[in-house]
Give the backbone structure.
Amino acid sequence: MKNYALIGYPLSHSFSPILHGLVYRSWELPNVYLSWEVLPEELELAIPMLKRNLAGFNVTAPHKKAIIRLLDDLDFSAQLYGAVNTVKSEDGKLIGFNTDGAGFLKGLSEVDYELTNKHILLLGAGGAAQTIALELAHQGCPVTIANRELSEAYALKLLLEKRFPEASVEIAQLNDIPKGSYSCIINATPVGMGSLANESPISSDYFRGVELAYDLIYNPAETLFLKEAGKMGCLTVNGLTMLIAQGLKAIEIWFEREIDAELEENIYSSIAKELYGND
Ligand code: NAP
């Protein structure tokens, strides 16, 4: 019997082992899900070992892009987002998938939000912002990318325009974003968590007229960004649904079995309890 794992470095705060454990126990599977710290310089050497010993594995920072050239094949999702967070070992081949984009979309569907033709303000230009920006461009949404480091926003704009020549992409400095008619604002920066818990990446006047504020942060459950958006009458979504949905999607890929709504709900409650200590 082969098992499953998460590879990355460092792996200290991952909820993936808890999430996977809950599903495997519910389905009475004998498999285990391991956390395996792999340094960037070890990744290439680790691949044959991962192929031999695992039926699949998740990939997190800093390997999501670096692993691509080491895989045998890429699913459409991995090609679209240019990053891999899930690998399936099948017939001696490693196939890369990306379930982060599906996780992001699940957060929108929870509140029945349609992206079609919406002008999006995306805060951040890192790994998570890249996946979201590619999804937005794929769906034809005009997007303004605001980042602290303008060159990173520019690099993301070039990537989007290369992949989607019709894409409408503006860039801005995070502390000097033009006031515009944004329908939705997405926070893909860590501003609002950890030592930045009392901060918001933008001032509350940006929420005027905005329909939805989506924060990828899941801890705390309600960041200052979401609190202020809520006060201004916006619909709000945090990152917990995305976190859980990307993990559940990986399990569905590996086991070719659908996770039913009841199990999904139980997992959501268990992880929320683990994170926030309530129900
Ligand atoms: P990343 O690749 O390291 O990118 C971080 C981004 O945040 C960069 O654009 C960076 O801007 C910006 N940033 C960092 N510190 C900042 C600060 N003090 N002020 C303003 N901007 C700052 O990280 P990532 O993987 O994209 O993750 C970004 C956020 O999304 C994190 O909060 C992470 O926890 C969350 N996330 C959630 C999920 C989920 O499933 N819910 C999944 C992935 C990520 P510069 O370029 O200027 O440095």
Notes: The chain has a mean pLDDT of 96. The domain at 102-238 is CATH 3.40.50.720 (Rossmann fold). The longest strand covers residues 3-8. The chain has two domains: 3-98+241-276, 102-238.
